[in-house]
């Protein structure tokens, strides 16, 4: 047993061929998941039980089950149902990529909406009351007062969720997608060199995580520049 | 639904494996978390560096990669060792149960490290000084003063770690452990009903998550009973 450096140098470019797919999964699911999270949040805080109760059930189910099971239900499970195969969504759900995006978006949407809710609840009541005193409507108060502050408050937790989403994209390799992890698994199956391949891939993922953390750190700093003490 | 008949016992045994896995991994998670937190809080620079590297690596890389690295890595190492003694041996692996529980415990342990570190820092320094003044040894201070005061603070985030832990057990089916997801795959092979079988897995995990959530709620109430207002 030895550490094969030539193999590492040889396989890193191969694995990086999958980074495009990993990033596509990440950004597409992030975009759709965040949009879903906003809808869920608005339903949750609407104060109408027929909107908030289904949202709570949705969040409970998606946060209470493993993402891998969700991916399997969507990719392997849904084709069992005839009405899914007849529906307009079938072209998306037929492809592993579409299934992975749907599963990751639905999952991350549940988590992110709770993060946003925390942000909204964290906004000082006095500010919205001041808005009301100024005669702003409920909608205006939400858009101009609550939302900007809530976004800033939920940003740190949101960045953690982006990182966990990035890690979840690796699960796409279980439904035949050749993202970075999928390629690595193929190489390991051929060469039987798990240490070399998996450790170099872990380093690639660490770099991605670091980039995400740094970017959010920068955004957070920018968004709270009015609070920073003069130095 | 009738497709499930005949598979109930398999699902039951699969769930039992999940439960066993959960408790073994939970024990290891607490252990790794405490060691990690102690290392981070110590004044020893080497311990600090190792603990920091540990949390960065295991929080920044996909769970599935860590799992694959542990399982296949340990397998080739063990095979190499075995072959040194007996060249006839073709393949030896670390049982998936142990490789899996070790891997997920290391991952969740890295999160627990941060939680425990924060909780230890949250313990009033005056209490530790008081213990010192009473002449308690370091070990006794740790067991009788620090631990009882910190677990209460660590409980809410640790509840979330336990939820991640139970959900991560699903990943171990990938390396061939006969838990619920693995049972579902076998059941699908004979019945051809993937949706039904995977939904059942989801329902089982939702049940586990609910039990954990309720347990943590009860524990939190118990931990904070001294703060309740007397009636």
Descriptive notes:
The complex is a heterodimer of chains A (231) and B (231). Chain A contains 11 helices and no strands. The mean pLDDT of chain A is 92. Chain A has helices spanning 5-16, 19-44, 49-64, 67-77, 82-86, 90-93, 96-121, 125-133, 138-168, 180-191, 194-223. In chain A, helix 9 (138-168) runs antiparallel to helix 11. With 231 residues, chain A is mostly helical. The termini of chain B are far apart. With 231 residues, chain B is mainly alpha-helical. Chain B has 8 helices and no strands. In chain B, helix 1 crosses helix 4 (96-122), helix 1 runs antiparallel to helix 7 (180-191) and helix 2 (45-60) crosses helix 4 (96-122). The model of chain B has no long low-confidence stretch (mean pLDDT 91). Chain B is flat and about 70 Å long. The A-B interface holds A 1, 60-61, 63-70, 72-73, 76-81, 163, 166-171, 173-174, 181, 184-185, 188, 192, 194-195, 198-199, 201-202, 205-206, 209-210 and B 56-57, 59-66, 68-69, 72-73, 75-77, 80, 163, 167-171, 173-174, 181, 184, 188, 192-199, 201-202, 205-206, 209-210.
Keywords:
heterodimer; A: 231 residues; mainly alpha; 11 helices; 79% helix; flat; B: 231 residues; 8 helices
């Amino acid at each position: 047993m030895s550490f094969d450096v030539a193999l590492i140098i040889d396989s890193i470019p191969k694995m990086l061929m999958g980074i495009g797919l990993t990033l596509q999964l990440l950004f597409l699911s992030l975009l759709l998941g965040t949009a879903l999270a906003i809808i869920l949040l608005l339903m949750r805080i609407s104060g109408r039980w027929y909107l908030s109760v289904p949202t709570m059930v949705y969040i409970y189910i998606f946060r209470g089950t493993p993402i891998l099971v969700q991916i399997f239900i969507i990719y392997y499970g849904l084709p069992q149902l005839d009405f899914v195969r007849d529906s307009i969504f079938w072209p998306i759900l037929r492809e592993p990529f579409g299934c992975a995006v749907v599963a990751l978006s639905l999952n991350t949407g549940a988590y992110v909406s709770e993060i946003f809710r925390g942000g909204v609840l964290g906004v000082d009541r006095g500010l919205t009351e001041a808005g009301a005193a100024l005669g702003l409507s409920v909608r205006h108060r939400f858009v101009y007062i609550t939302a900007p502050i809530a976004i800033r408050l939920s940003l740190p937790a949101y960045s953690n969720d982006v990182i966990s989403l990035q890690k979840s994209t690796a699960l796409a390799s279980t439904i035949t997608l050749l993202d970075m992890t999928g390629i690595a698994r193929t190489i390991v199956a051929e060469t039987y060199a798990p240490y070399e391949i998996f450790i170099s891939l872990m380093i690639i993922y660490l770099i991605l995580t670091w980039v995400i953390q740094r970017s959010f750190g920068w955004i957070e700093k920018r968004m709270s520049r009015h609070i920073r003490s003069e130095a | 639904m009738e497709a499930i008949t005949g598979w109930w016992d398999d699902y039951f045994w699969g769930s039992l494996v999940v439960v066993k896995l959960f408790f073994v991994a939970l024990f290891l998670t607490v252990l790794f978390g405490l060691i990690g937190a102690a290392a981070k809080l110590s004044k020893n620079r080497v311990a600090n560096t190792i603990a920091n590297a540990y949390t960065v690596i295991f929080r920044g890389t996909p769970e599935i990669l860590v799992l694959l690295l542990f399982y296949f890595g340990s397998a080739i190492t063990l095979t190499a060792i075995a072959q040194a003694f007996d060249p006839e041996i073709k393949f030896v692996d670390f049982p998936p149960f142990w490789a899996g529980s070790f891997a997920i415990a290391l991952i969740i342990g890295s999160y627990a490290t941060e939680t425990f570190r924060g909780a230890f820092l949250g313990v009033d320094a005056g209490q530790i000084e008081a213990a010192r003044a009473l002449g308690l040894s370091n070990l006794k201070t740790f067991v009788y003063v620090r631990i009882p005061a910190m677990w209460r603070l660590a409980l809410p985030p640790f509840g979330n770690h336990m939820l991640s832990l139970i959900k991560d057990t699903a990943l171990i089916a990938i390396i061939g452990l006969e838990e619920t997801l693995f049972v579902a795959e076998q059941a699908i092979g004979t019945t051809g009903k993937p949706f039904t079988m995977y939904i059942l897995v989801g329902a089982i995990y939702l049940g586990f998550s609910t039990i954990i959530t309720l347990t943590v709620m009860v524990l939190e109430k118990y931990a904070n009973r001294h703060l309740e207002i007397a009636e």
